[in-house]
Specification:
Blueprint: E1 2-5, E2 15-20, E3 53-54, H1 59-83, H2 88-115, E4 118-121, E5 125-130, E6 134-141, E7 147-152, H3 154-158, E8 161-167, E9 178-185, H4 186-196, E10 211-214, H5 228-246, H6 250-261, H7 266-293, E11 297-301, E12 305-310, E13 315-321, E14 325-333, H8 334-338, E15 341-348, E16 363-369, H9 370-380, H10 397-425, H11 428-455, E17 457-461, E18 464-469, E19 473-480, E20 484-491, H12 493-498, E21 500-507, E22 513-520, H13 521-531, H14 533-536
Antiparallel strand pairs: 1-20, 2-6, 3-4, 4-5, 5-6, 7-8, 7-13, 8-9, 10-11, 11-12, 12-13, 14-15, 14-19, 15-16, 17-18, 18-19, 20-21, 21-22
Helix pairs in contact: 1-2, 5-6, 5-7, 10-11
C-alpha cells in the first residue's frame, strides 16, 4: 500500500499555567505581535466592581437538586437490597446517612469551586482561574475565539442560568482550546457571546431574511427511520432487566414473559417480542427527536454568524462564524434517504468532533425533505443553487467489483458459520437456517453493493469540490477548494491492479479529510489538480499516456447550464 501526502496544517493550544494557591497571579503575557488598534476586537463592558468576575452562586441550588436526584436514584435499589438482609429501619438509616454524606460533600466541593473560580474578559484575552490547592490559569486570545455556545438544562433554565463554552476550534488540542463557565446568568452569557464573536464584517444586504430555517412539526416523521430506533429498542429491554435485577424481580419478569407467550409458537413469540421492542424504539426516537430539535431555528446574524437554537428541556445555542465555514455535508442514512430526506452538517474550523462535549455541534438542519435541504445549503453557502445536487462524474466499473466482493464476502460469513455448525453437529435446523440466511443476505448484499457504487461521484462546482459516497450512510460533501491544505493519494495492491486510487482532501475543518473513493488513476489526479492546482500539479508527470478523462464540471454561479 502506498501513500503520498502534500500540504501543511497548523494550530496552537491555549496558554495554561499552574501555581500553588496563595501565590500572586502572574501578569498576563503580552501578545507576540500586537495587532493594530483598528483591528483589535472591542473590549467587553467593564465590570464596575472588579476586573475578575465570579460564577453565579445559584450553582449551589443546581448542585443540591442534582445530588438529591442521584441520592434518590441510587438509594432506592440500595435500600431494597439492604432490606433483604437487614431490618427495614436499619436499611433506611444507612440510605439516609449515605444521602446526607453525598449531599454535604458535594455542596462543600461546589462551594470551594465557586470561591476559587474567576474569569476575566480583557481587550486581548479571556482568562479563567480555577483550583483550590493549586491555581490553574488558562487564557484564550480573543482574536482566535471561534465559538461561544450556551447550554442550559432544565434546572439551569429554572434559575435563569446557562453554561458558556468558549472555544477556538483548535482540533489539535481540544482539551486546551476551550474554556467553560458553569454557570452564569443568561443575560451575561448572551453579552459574552455578542462581545466575543463581534467582528468587522460586512452587514447583510437589506431585505434579506435572517431566518434560514425553522422547525416544521412534520419532520418528526423521519425520526424513527434512523438506526437509532433499534438501538433504543435494545436499550429499553436492557433497562427493564436491569431495574428488575435491582429489586430482585428478574425471575418474575422472565416468568411473566414465558407464561404470556407460551401458548404461541416460537416464531410468533419472537415476532411479538420484536414488535414490542420496535414500538419501544419508535416511541423513544420520537421523544429524543422532540427533546433535541424542539423550537429549532437557524439564523444568520448581522455580524456574519450562523446561529442554531434548539432544545425542549435542555436548550442549546450554537454560534458559528461564516468566515470559518468551509462547506457542508449532506448526510442521508438509508431509511431517511428512501423517504426522500436528508440532514445537513457544517464543515467548519471552529467545530471539532474531538471535543467530546456535544456530538451535534455541527448539525445545521435535522432530517428534512430534500427541497428544504437544497434551499438551506444554498442559502448557507450563499450560492444560487444547491451545490450538493450536481451531476457528478461516475467512477470506473472496477469500483463496483470491489464493492460486490466486500459485500458478498461479509454476507457469506454467517451463512458459512451456520452451515459448518449444522454439518459438524448434525443439526438439520442449522442447515435450514443457513439456507434461509443465504437466500436473504446474498441478494441484499448485492443490492447494497450496487447502491454503494451508484453513490460514488466527484465533481467541481465553482469554488467548491464535491465528493459523494456511502450506502447505509450516504454523504455528499461540498468543500471549499481554498480550504484544502493537502491531498493524500492512497493506492492498495488490489487498487493498483484495478487502476484505482482513493483521494483524500485534507482540511483544517470538520473531519479533517474527505475522500473520493476508488476513482480512476488519471481521472482522479486530474480532478485533484483542477480542484487545487497549486498543491498537486508540481508532483504530476505529464506526457504521452498521462492524460485521462477529466471530471464532469458542474456549472458555477453565472455559468450557462
Amino acid at each position: 500500500m502506498t501513500d503520498a501526502v502534500t500540504g501543511t496544517g497548523q494550530g496552537a493550544p491555549a496558554e495554561r499555567t499552574a501555581t500553588p494557591a496563595g501565590t500572586p497571579d502572574p501578569a498576563p503575557a503580552a501578545p507576540r505581535t500586537p495587532a493594530p488598534a483598528s483591528a483589535r476586537p472591542d473590549p467587553a463592558p467593564p465590570d464596575p466592581a472588579t476586573d475578575w468576575r465570579r460564577l453565579d452562586p445559584r450553582s449551589l441550588l443546581v448542585t443540591a437538586q442534582l445530588l438529591l436526584g442521584a441520592a434518590f436514584g441510587a438509594g432506592v435499589p440500595v435500600g431494597a437490597g439492604l432490606a433483604a438482609h437487614l431490618d427495614v429501619r436499619a436499611a433506611v438509616a444507612w440510605v439516609l446517612a449515605g444521602s446526607v454524606l453525598l449531599l454535604g460533600g458535594g455542596l462543600a466541593v461546589d462551594v470551594l469551586r465557586l470561591r476559587h473560580t474567576r474569569y476575566r474578559v480583557g481587550a486581548e484575552r479571556v482568562e479563567l482561574r480555577t483550583g483550590v490547592l493549586f491555581t490553574s490559569r488558562r487564557s484564550l486570545p480573543r482574536d482566535r475565539i471561534r465559538t461561544v455556545d450556551l447550554t442550559a438544562h432544565p434546572l439551569l433554565r429554572l434559575l435563569g442560568l446557562v453554561k458558556v463554552r468558549i472555544g477556538t476550534g483548535d482540533q489539535t488540542a481540544a482539551g486546551e482550546s476551550a474554556l467553560q463557565l458553569t454557570p452564569v446568568r443568561r443575560a451575561e452569557g448572551e453579552s459574552l457571546r455578542r462581545a466575543l464573536l463581534r467582528r468587522d464584517t460586512t452587514a447583510a444586504p437589506a431585505g434579506d431574511d435572517p431566518r434560514l430555517a425553522t422547525l416544521s412539526p412534520g419532520w418528526i416523521r423521519y425520526a424513527p427511520l434512523s438506526f437509532l430506533t433499534p438501538l433504543l429498542a435494545l436499550t429499553g429491554w436492557g433497562a427493564v432487566m436491569q431495574v428488575s435485577q435491582w429489586f430482585g424481580a428478574e425471575e418474575t419478569v422472565v416468568d411473566w414473559v414465558r407464561d404470556t407467550f407460551s401458548p404461541l409458537p416460537a416464531l410468533w413469540t419472537v415476532l411479538a417480542l420484536g414488535s414490542i421492542a420496535l414500538v419501544t424504539g419508535f416511541v423513544g426516537s420520537l421523544g429524543l427527536w422532540t427533546e433535541m430539535w424542539w423550537n429549532y431555528r437557524l439564523e444568520r446574524e448581522p455580524d456574519g454568524t450562523l446561529r442554531v437554537r434548539r432544545g425542549l428541556l435542555t436548550t442549546r445555542s450554537i454560534s458559528l462564524e461564516e468566515a470559518r465555514l468551509r462547506g457542508v455535508d449532506v448526510v442521508e442514512p438509508l431509511g431517511v434517504r428512501l423517504s426522500g430526506a436528508a440532514r445537513v452538517e457544517a464543515i467548519a474550523t471552529g467545530l471539532s468532533r474531538k471535543d467530546g462535549e456535544d456530538d451535534d455541534l455541527s448539525a445545521l438542519l435535522p432530517a428534512a425533505p430534500r427541497a428544504v435541504v437544497d434551499d438551506v445549503t444554498a442559502r448557507v453557502l450563499r450560492a444560487p443553487v444547491a451545490l450538493t445536487r450536481p451531476e457528478l462524474a461516475p467512477h470506473p466499473r472496477a469500483a463496483l467489483a470491489r464493492r460486490l466482493r466486500w459485500s458478498l464476502g461479509a454476507a457469506l460469513v454467517p451463512v458459512a458459520v451456520l452451515v459448518a455448525l449444522g454439518a459438524a453437529l448434525s443439526v438439520r435446523g442449522l442447515l435450514y437456517a443457513g439456507a434461509v440466511a443465504a437466500a436473504v443476505l446474498l441478494p441484499a448484499a448485492a443490492l447494497l453493493a450496487r447502491d454503494a457504487y451508484r453513490s460514488l461521484g466527484h465533481g467541481l462546482a465553482g469554488p467548491y469540490l464535491v465528493v459523494r459516497s456511502g450506502t447505509l450512510r450516504r454523504s455528499t460533501v461540498a468543500l471549499r477548494r481554498d480550504g484544502v491544505v493537502g491531498w493524500t493519494v492512497r493506492q492498495s495492491l488490489f487498487q493498483r491492479r484495478a487502476g484505482l486510487v482513493t483521494l483524500r482532501a485534507t482540511t483544517a475543518a470538520g473531519a479533517q479529510a474527505y475522500a473520493a473513493y476508488d476513482v480512476g488513476e488519471a481521472q482522479g489526479l486530474r480532478f485533484a489538480a483542477e480542484a487545487v492546482p497549486e498543491l498537486l500539479t508540481p508532483f504530476l508527470v505529464t506526457g504521452a499516456g498521462a492524460e485521462g478523462p477529466a471530471p464532469a464540471p458542474v456549472p458555477a454561479e453565472g455559468d450557462a447550464p
